[in-house]
Design goal:
heterotrimer, A: mainly alpha, Helix Hairpins, C: 625 residues, mainly alpha, two-stranded antiparallel sheet, 27 helices, 2 strands, 4% strand, globular
């Protein structure tokens, strides 16, 4: 029987989310940024599962399944885009793909 | 049971930290898989065995593998030099600060809401399936369309057409 | 009678129209006939109307005629209506008569000028405006004439417009009189707001009824109208334009700046005399201003080289006498002096014009000399004019008119010894500078030879004016010398008689005193300028002399106080300060654009950072509320 308080569980999810956020802000390589996004998605889903357990409903898990589906699609498309960027810019630096900006 | 939770939690956190701060892409990805596996353990402990299984199969099994393949295809991170150049220690300060602020907010928010203690009740895949295909049927259909869109998009975006410039248009 | 009155201003204006429209196509002779003839006809009409008026005295004191409706808007009702009473009759007589002589003179004077028709058109317009001014029944029409003469003064001073200095002088005249005009129109506004009418007689009646003597509003209105008079009549502090106005042709100086326009201020004050009796402070101020002006201008005239400038300062000084008379309540004396002054001053200017013309535009008196023998007629008339100006005892008209003023300045109810002293000093100075002018210009050896002699068309007006300068004074003789009061009895029909203190002084003493002083002045001029010129030579190089010559530094003073700050402000505003507001707004918008553009640098991580910061702030705010 798990008697870990719910606050701790959600806090864990929050910490993972924030770690993913830090990783997103710090890294310049696009693959790593995508990785951090995955971490964030995962932690969000974890919150749903925790909540589902709290309310004793399957809805939480259903939500997690949907999140999973969305994540999968998003990763696929994102990686395809990263491939395109790499072939065009010859680099994976997120700072160098800054053509969409104010020209002043 | 609690100890398992705490152990899995700490492994998840440590491996995530290693993943985001690594210089080698493949190593980071592997750490990330480790993190996902520990999260799966946590899910199991949270009376959601189906989700735990799905986490391993789809997340760690499919998405991460996709990541690894693309990384290997792009042939990056092997040297680690660029990453070293890009990843100065001073860059961690501000995001960490912001995350700390957000963490503080988070803790404040959570501790101010009284929550009744949870009851142990395993939610079986059967329940999830019934809920999925009765209440959330439309969402399932939409998810399916989304996946199809993803497939088509990924194929289209991933293809490269060689651009042929006419020899007269080639600038010397 | 009514037709005469309405024709009097109309005919010169008609002359102006004809000359303005068709002047280029007419021959010189026709232009001269139309120009001078229109004024001549008006002079005749004035004589006829005048005799009828004199016959109808003392029952009918004024005639008025409404020609047509001008403004009828709400409360404001102003018509083109003229009224003839004793005061306007005198003024009309002077304007038309002297004007006619000057026009005749101009036919020969301007004969070689290419702007011949333009000159006569402007002169006719001037005479028409001046007649409107003096005949006006309501104060708005008076102001119309006032502005009209100001315009013509500007046009005629800058007549030879190809020379930029003339244009500058014309602008200076216009701007300085404009300052006075603004004060005047504010006074007119106050009068209209207080009484709801613009008819002069109604205004005066209502003012004496409703305003208490010495009340602030009466003082204010009187002071404002005085401001207008000061500007037009070139008194302190607005006197700086008249010496520069000598840039115009001599007939212009004679007509406008000696006989008529500069006396418009005298006319205005006389016309609105009720206001000044309601504001004794302002009336005293008029006397003081008159006294100061006549002294300052007298000293300045003493130091001038330019023949016409001497006469210009002399005009300022003599109008100071008229203001002095108005200030002590000697209304008829002021008008009398105006008439006599018009005669001899016009004479002096016309004669000066002849001298300048025959000496080939030489203005400096120290380059003239010995003209006594070469141009005897001009010399005689000039001498008569200067004697009348100096008030040579008994034989000149100027003596009687100036003497009346001097007597009233001490014997009037509001007179004082100080004012008399100022007047007598002024008389001494007048004699001094007039005869200085004569001795240096006409005596001694000839430094410039006259190129030709003037013809009859120029000399006959001089002779006529000289006759009047001598004999016109005999219509008003003081008690001790014949007691003829033809003039004052005429004018006293419109203006109040002067209130005289029954003092112990006798008039004879003062007359003797003034006679002695005048003769002393002439003798001093003779000694210092003719017999022993070395005495005046050393003085003429002194600092004091130069101070006098520059008109007591008024021009420089105004330059420093008014002109330089305005020019400095204009320099600062060179880039149009108020446009900066508009430019500033657009520049601010562009600056904001650039600032905000920095936040759109296309870097993904920058955007992410901004998200995170935003989330942190908002969440912190929400949670800590």
């Amino acid at each position: 029987m798990l008697t870990v308080p719910v606050e701790i569980q959600i806090m864990l999810a929050g910490i993972l989310f924030l770690l993913g956020l830090i990783g997103l802000l710090v890294r310049r390589n696009m693959i790593f940024m995508l990785m951090s996004i995955e971490v964030m998605f995962n932690s969000a889903g974890m919150v749903f599962v925790i909540a589902g357990k709290q309310w004793r409903q399957p809805d939480g898990q259903v939500m997690f399944i949907f999140i999973l589906a969305v994540t999968a699609v998003e990763v696929a498309i994102a990686l395809a885009l990263i491939l395109q960027v790499y072939h065009h810019f010859k680099t994976l630096d997120a700072d160098s793909v800054n053509k969409l900006r104010d020209s002043n | 049971m609690n100890t398992f939770f705490y152990i899995a939690a700490s492994i998840a956190i440590i491996s995530t930290i290693m993943a985001i701060s690594g210089r080698n892409a493949i190593h980071s990805l592997l750490f990330l898989i480790l993190s996902l596996l520990s999260v799966s353990v946590i899910f199991y402990l949270l009376d959601a065995p189906f989700i735990a299984a799905l986490e391993v199969i789809i997340y760690a099994g499919a998405i991460m593998v996709l990541f690894i393949f693309v990384t290997m295809m792009l042939n990056i991170g092997m040297e680690g030099r660029t990453e070293k150049k890009w990843l100065r220690p001073g860059m961690w300060i501000i995001p960490s600060l912001l995350a700390a602020v957000l963490l503080a907010d988070f803790i404040l928010a959570i501790t101010h809401v009284p929550v009744s203690p949870s009851v142990d009740q395993v939610i079986l895949p059967k329940q999830v399936g019934i809920s999925l295909f009765s209440t959330y049927l439309l969402a399932v259909e939409i998810a399916a369309i989304l996946l199809m869109a993803g497939v088509i998009g990924a194929y289209h975006l991933g293809s490269q057409k060689k651009k042929i410039t006419h020899r007269f248009l080639i600038k010397n | 009678m009514a037709t005469y009155i309405s024709l009097i201003p109309a005919i010169p204006l008609l002359g102006f129209l004809v000359l303005a429209l068709f002047g280029q196509k007419l021959t010189r002779k026709t232009i001269g006939i139309i120009g001078a003839g229109s004024v001549g006809i008006v002079a005749l009409l004035t004589l006829i109307a005048g005799t009828e008026f004199l016959k109808s005295l003392p029952q009918v004191k004024s005639y008025s005629v409404v020609v047509w409706q001008w403004i009828n808007a709400g409360n404001l009702k102003a018509d083109i209506s003229f009224s003839l009473d004793a005061l306007s009759l005198v003024f009309c007589f002077v304007i038309t008569f002297v004007g006619f002589l000057i026009h005749v003179y101009s036919i020969e004077f301007m004969a070689k000028d290419e702007g011949f028709s333009r000159f006569f058109a402007y002169m006719n317009l001037f005479v028409g405006s001046m007649l409107i001014l003096v005949l006006a029944d309501n104060i708005l029409l008076l102001y119309l004439g006032w502005e009209g003469v100001g315009l013509c003064s500007y046009l005629l001073i800058g007549f030879w417009y190809k020379e930029p200095a003339n244009g500058y002088a014309a602008r200076k005249a216009f701007i300085i009189t404009r300052i006075g005009d603004t004060a005047m129109i504010i006074g007119i506004f106050i009068l209209f707001l207080s009484f709801g009418t613009v008819n002069i007689n109604d205004l005066m009646q209502q003012a004496s009824g409703k305003w208490a003597a010495g009340s602030p509003i009466a003082v204010l209105t009187a002071a404002l109208l005085l401001g207008g008079a000061l500007g037009k009549s070139a008194q302190l502090p607005l006197q700086t334009w008249l010496p520069d106005a000598m840039a115009g042709p001599s007939p212009v100086s004679a007509l406008i700046h000696a006989a008529t326009m500069v006396t418009a201020g005298v006319y205005l004050i006389a016309r609105t005399h009720v206001l000044y009796s309601l504001a004794p402070i302002v009336q005293t101020a008029i006397a003081i201003i008159g006294a100061l002006t006549l002294l300052i201008a007298g000293f300045s005239a003493l130091a001038q080289h330019d023949l016409k400038r001497i006469l210009a300062y002399s005009t300022i000084s003599q109008i100071g006498y008229m203001f002095l008379a108005l200030g002590v309540g000697a209304w008829s004396a002021a008008v009398f002096h105006f008439m006599i002054h018009a005669f001899f001053k016009a004479l002096l200017f016309l004669a000066a014009g002849v001298v300048i013309l025959v000496l080939n535009e030489e203005h400096d008196i120290f380059k003239m000399g010995g003209l006594r023998k070469k141009m005897p007629v001009v010399y005689m008339t000039f001498l008569i004019g200067a004697s009348s100006l100096s008030a040579l005892p008994l034989i000149t008209a100027g003596f009687y008119s100036k003497d009346a003023i001097l007597w009233y300045s001490i014997s009037s109810e509001t007179g004082s010894t100080l004012l008399w002293l100022a007047g007598i000093t002024g008389a001494f100075l007048t004699a001094l500078y007039s005869f200085r002018m004569i001795f240096i210009t006409f005596f001694g050896e000839a430094k410039t030879q006259p190129a030709f002699l003037p013809g009859k068309t120029m000399t006959i007006p001089l002779i006529i004016l000289a006759v009047f300068s001598v004999f016109a004074g005999f219509v008003e003789l003081p008690k001790s010398m014949g007691n003829i009061h033809l003039f004052s009895s005429l004018v006293d029909n419109t203006l109040p008689a002067v209130v005289v203190n029954e003092t112990g002084h006798s008039e004879i003493v003062f007359q003797l005193l003034s006679a002695i002083i005048v003769l002393a002045g002439i003798y001093l001029a003779y000694t210092v300028y003719l017999k022993k010129p070395a005495l005046s030579e050393s003085f003429s190089h002194s600092r004091l002399n130069r101070f006098f010559e520059k008109g007591w530094g008024f021009d420089k003073f105004y330059d420093v106080i008014f002109v330089k700050p305005v020019v400095w402000l204009a320099e600062i505003d060179k880039d149009d300060l108020f446009d900066w507001l508009n430019i500033g707004i657009s520049r601010l918008a562009l600056l904001m654009n650039r600032l905000l553009g920095i936040t759109q640098n296309g870097k993904l991580r920058w955007y992410l950072m901004s998200f995170t910061v935003g989330i942190a702030l908002i969440l912190t705010y929400l949670i800590c509320r």
